[in-house]
Amino acid sequence: MKPFRYLVPVTLLGLAEADLSGCGRSLTFQHTNLFQFGQIQFSFSACTYDSTIGGYRAGVANFNTVDGSAWNVVKAYHAATDGSDELSPYDSWLQDPTQFSGSSRSSGFCSAWKKAANNPDFLTAQATVFSSKYLKPTQSAIDKQGLSLGISEALMYDTAITNGVGSSQGSLGWLIANTNKQVLTDISGHSGNTLTVNGFDVDEIAWVQLFLTQRSAYSSATATAASTKSFRYMVTNILAAIGDIPMLTVNEA
């Protein structure tokens, strides 16, 4: 970990000074993919049964057969194939997965998904749903909160993927609301951007630290907890790089 530690000031200050686009966005995706899927690349062909939800998770953002996101991907794929492709036999089941729970209607689904991942049209379908389900709602939340630093946007994106983007307990919207409730006075800092929260002026990195505290308190899944710790490490060392506090090692974060 030591070589990475010495690169932190330059790398993370770049994230702190730029919005999430180009290289910054690529690095963000790689960070989230590492904790979600165990690799930095997007996995369009990934597919596995998840007993905790009673359905399958598949594709670049763990689309699943329970919340309808996997069906949205398949529908977008059908639009390019005129509805005749590897996943067509699963249309009825995907539209109502509970209807065939425990039956053979889902048999071979992962094999079909992996085969479809060889088709560029299927990759495009996944990217389209990925954008509408995660990227656009996350960007909307970022704009509403007034966040502008790359590290902040990266954290919001990662939270959306790991926790969901809505307002239900633990989701991105819920965590933002809970974080804002903690702001009861002005909070200064040196991030270069000041948010207005509940009528108070709050330094953006200070707000991010409050957000991480809320996320840590809610986190229970191993991947989510590890990802949160990683962001806490990055934020802490951004502050160290601008001289606010001593630099930490990963284990100290």
Write structural notes for this entry.
- There is one protein chain.
- This protein has about 250 residues and is mostly helical.
- It has two domains: about 150 residues, Chitosanase, subunit A, domain 1 (Up-down Bundle); about 70 residues, no CATH class.
- It has ten helices and five strands.
- The strands form two sheets. It has a three-stranded antiparallel beta sheet. A two-stranded antiparallel ribbon has the order 4-5.
- Helix 1 crosses helix 10, helix 6 crosses helix 7 and helix 7 packs antiparallel against helix 10.
- It is elongated.
Keywords:
253 residues, mainly alpha, Chitosanase, subunit A, domain 1, 3-stranded antiparallel β-sheet, two-stranded antiparallel ribbon, 10 helices, 5 strands, disordered N terminus, disordered C terminus, Lysozyme-like_dom_sf, Glyco_hydro_46, chitosanase activity
- Superfamily (CATH H level) name of the largest domain: Chitosanase, subunit A, domain 1
CATH class of the largest domain: Mainly Alpha
Whole-number mean pLDDT = 78
Helix percent reads 55-70%
Fraction in beta strands: 5-15%
Number of helices: 10
- How many structural domains does the protein architecture include? 2
Q: Strand order, main sheet: write it out.
A: 1-2-3
CATH fold naming of the largest domain: Chitosanase, subunit A, domain 1
Q: Report the sheet with the most strands, covering strand number, pairing sense and barrel closure.
A: 3 strands, antiparallel
Give me the secondary-structure category: mainly alpha
Task: Give the low-pLDDT segments.
Answer: 1-20, 244-253
* Secondary-structure arrangement, i.e. CATH architecture of the largest domain: Up-down Bundle
Run of helices and strands:
HHEEEHHHHHHEEHH
Using only C-alpha atoms, the radius of gyration works out to: 20 Å
Distance between the first and last residues' Cα? 13 Å
DSSP, total strands: 5
Shape: elongated
Pfam family, one: Glyco_hydro_46
Signal peptide: 1-18
Organism: Coemansia javaensis
Keywords: Signal
